[in-house]
């Protein structure tokens, strides 16, 4: 089901039209979904919009990376899976459909989640701290993570979700009106909506709006390099450092993620890495040490690393939350391996929610969960000792 753009914008007008009160609304976590907070996007609100989903070719966007095969089959080339898709069928991510021998992105301009968030929620700790970002997500994902916290979006097809009709120019228009630091593609895997993200990123750059995305890191190298020309910052999930963990938990592979991380660094685009530490599954100290050593040697000591706490979700509700002591131990290992900026997430109020100067050890950015209380940076330098702190401090 979708809601017409005019109706969506009128419903969100209470937020979009009141720039003088926007900051107060955002601090209360006010969202921009065109349905009430107590409505599940999978179920709808009981109102018949009279608008059914249509996947007519004229309403879709042809995929940018695919190869035509015999018998009208196509091979998608946007991610490591390289799905071979028969006519009238979709790939593993559910977002790319073969119609008459051509591959189409069926979620282009059809976000199911639109919200303004603090950049710290991405998480990004070295990108304009304390600013807000315009977050966009659709249906679908090329992973099957058992613990996904956004499974209502990522593990569904667009056919099963409510969505808005918002084209790239609409996203840019709203980002400009809200004076946000960036547009972020997040919530579900942005690789699966590639063309929507790419077109938005190009347009956003023309208007000097930042662009970022939060990804599982499985995009193929060619589309990634093409996209990175228009991207200011990335957050990549390095879910673990063992192939069997990736296969068992996500039905995925580790090596494409490592390739993605190196490609981003080589392109000179800002990168932050998230490791969601799952109790007894990816928290072995020796594996953590191997991961941190690889990051230091292959990517560099200045890549921020976020160790975040697992909480039960989706198909792993019987797994205990990560003991905080294991997160603290992981941070200690990372520092010992030579990484300079390591934080702990999903533990509100923890000392290492904050970023510290690796030289003088004074607080650079004091945080409590997603809230920034103090920034001790001057032109990208530590105010106390003058050390250059890498990051994106302005657009």
Describe this structure in words.
This protein is α/β, with parallel strands linked by helices. The protein folds into three domains: 57-105; 113-352, Alpha-Beta Barrel (TIM Barrel); 354-395, no CATH class. The protein is 26% helix and 21% strand. The protein has eleven helices and 21 strands. Strands 8-9-11-12-13-14-15-16 form an eight-stranded mixed sheet. A three-stranded antiparallel sheet has the order 2-7-6. Strand 15 (305-309), helix 11 and strand 16 (342-345) form a beta-alpha-beta unit. Helix 5 (168-178) crosses helix 6. It is globular, with a radius of gyration of 21 Å. The model is unreliable at 1-53 (pLDDT under 50). One of its GO terms (molecular function) is metal ion binding. Its cofactor is [4Fe-4S] cluster. This is Radical SAM domain protein. Residues 127-340 form the Radical SAM core domain.
């Amino acid at each position: 089901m979708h809601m017409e753009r005019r109706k969506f914008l009128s419903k969100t007008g209470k937020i979009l039209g009141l720039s003088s009160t926007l900051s107060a609304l955002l601090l209360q976590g006010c969202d921009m979904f065109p349905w009430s907070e107590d409505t599940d996007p999978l179920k709808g609100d009981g109102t018949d919009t009279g608008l059914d989903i249509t996947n007519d070719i004229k309403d879709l966007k042809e995929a940018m990376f695919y190869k035509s095969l015999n018998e009208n089959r196509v091979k998608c080339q946007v991610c490591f899976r390289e799905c071979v898709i028969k006519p009238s069928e979709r790939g593993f991510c559910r977002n790319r459909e073969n119609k008459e021998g051509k591959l189409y992105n069926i979620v282009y301009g059809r976000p199911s989640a639109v919200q303004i968030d603090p950049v710290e929620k991405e998480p990004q700790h070295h990108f304009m701290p304390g600013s807000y970002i315009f977050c966009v997500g659709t249906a679908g994902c090329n992973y099957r993570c058992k613990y996904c916290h956004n499974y209502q979006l990522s593990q569904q097809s667009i056919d099963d979700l409510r969505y808005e009709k918002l084209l790239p120019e609409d996203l840019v228009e709203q980002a400009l009106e809200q004076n946000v630091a960036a547009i972020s593609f997040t919530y579900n895997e942005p690789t699966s909506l590639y063309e929507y993200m790419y077109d938005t990123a190009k347009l956003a750059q023309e208007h000097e709006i930042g662009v970022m995305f939060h990804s599982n890191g499985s995009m193929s190298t060619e589309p990634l390099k093409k996209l990175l020309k228009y991207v200011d910052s990335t957050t990549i999930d390095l879910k673990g450092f063992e192939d069997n963990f990736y296969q068992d938990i996500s039905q995925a592979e580790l090596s494409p993620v490592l390739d993605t991380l190196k490609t981003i660094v080589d392109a000179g685009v800002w990168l932050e890495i998230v490791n969601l530490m799952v109790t007894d599954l990816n928290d072995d100290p020796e594996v953590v040490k191997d991961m941190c050593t690889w990051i230091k040697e292959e990517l560099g000591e200045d890549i921020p690393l976020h160790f975040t706490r697992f909480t039960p979700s989706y198909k792993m509700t019987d797994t205990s939350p990560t003991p905080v002591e294991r997160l603290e131990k992981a941070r200690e290992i990372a520092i010992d391996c030579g990484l300079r900026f390591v934080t702990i997430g999903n533990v509100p109020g923890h000392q290492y929610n904050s970023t510290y100067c690796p030289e003088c050890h004074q607080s650079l950015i004091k945080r409590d969960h997603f809230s920034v209380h103090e920034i001790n940076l001057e032109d990208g330098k530590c105010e106390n000792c003058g050390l250059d702190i890498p990051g994106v401090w302005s657009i």
